Amino acid sequence: MTANAQATPHATRVLVLNSGSSSLKYQLLDMADGSRLAVGLVERIGEDSSRLAHTPLATGGTKREITERIADHTAALQAVAAELAADGLGLDSPELAAIGHRVVHGGSRFTEPTLITDEVLAEIERLIPVAPLHNPANITGIRTAQALRPDLPQVAVFDTAFHTTMPEHAARYAIDVATADAHRVRRYGFHGTSHAYVSRETAKLLGKDPSEVNVIVLHLGNGASASAVQGGRCVDTSMGLTPLEGLVMGTRSGDVDPAVIFHLARNAGMSVDEIDSLLNKKSGLIGLCGDNDMREIRRRIDEGDEAARLAFDIYVHRLKKYIGAYYAVLGKVDAVAFTAGVGENAAPVREAAVAGLEELGLAVDAELNAQRGDSARLISPDYARVAVAVVPTDEELEIATQAYALVSA
Fold it and tell me: Which residues contact 33 (CB under 8 A, 6 or more apart)?
């Protein structure tokens, strides 16, 4: 693949691939109007119980499912290609302009969508030590797609790219500089495609250009992160070297005293791998109350479950701390935007996160907050100095938009 590869003239479709360690999410979009032609998911790759769920939106077809062993990512993408071809949307279509890949960690080098070359792929591989769970799967997806369509531009869109605008005083940790530089230790941030999309959509909701708006974006899913966006540029974010830092998440602890790690190693006899597993997979909401589904936690709270109540209160307390911190970082805030699974659907979380911050100009209208919808909307009363918004994220559209802009430039 050469660095000057371009889309075929008049080709407007982009296939977006999000490769996990045992899964492959995909969407086919037409950038002529931003419409989705097909969406799907292959899960449990490599297991006997693999499943492919495919929905052809262009033809108005119903979801199709295949449940059979899918050995690896190559077989998964071949199965996806077959499903797309059955709908007349095959990967050999001249209307396909590019394949856009979500890549979790781009380090400090990749600050924008990048055409994938051998050199770029080698750099993504070099970043595996700081993204051991994510980058290997992303690389597998890239190589698989390259093998199927070696002639087609492949574009990497990095979760970390949006956060590379952070000033050094926000990105640096206060540790020995030589050690930090030698081992690439700094705050990178994640969920960047979501934060970029939501901050722009929030500005649009306010009727302003992104350069005129300061937004605190709260991406609250099983993974959760906050960002301070000043005039369209990220100036701080809660996730750091890895996605572990920051907010309380579904299974991740978020912020802890680093000495907790030493304490557990010395006094509990836990290995580094055991502590890593504890903080990433057995902490957060699931560690506090045994559930990482906010709907189930709220149901338990309604039934008087004290463990669920405490988990919810800890979750909201951390969230409120970051809202206050990023308010201070920005100096002036035009909006706080909630997004992702919890942010878009859990009205009690939004209400509790803003409660008590009236002196900062924040408030939620109970009736507006209770309403559900698929479009961006304000949930703050008219008198509030700071808008509070619910903005559904669309990371696939953001990846497709960036990939298409690059190859059609």
Answer: none
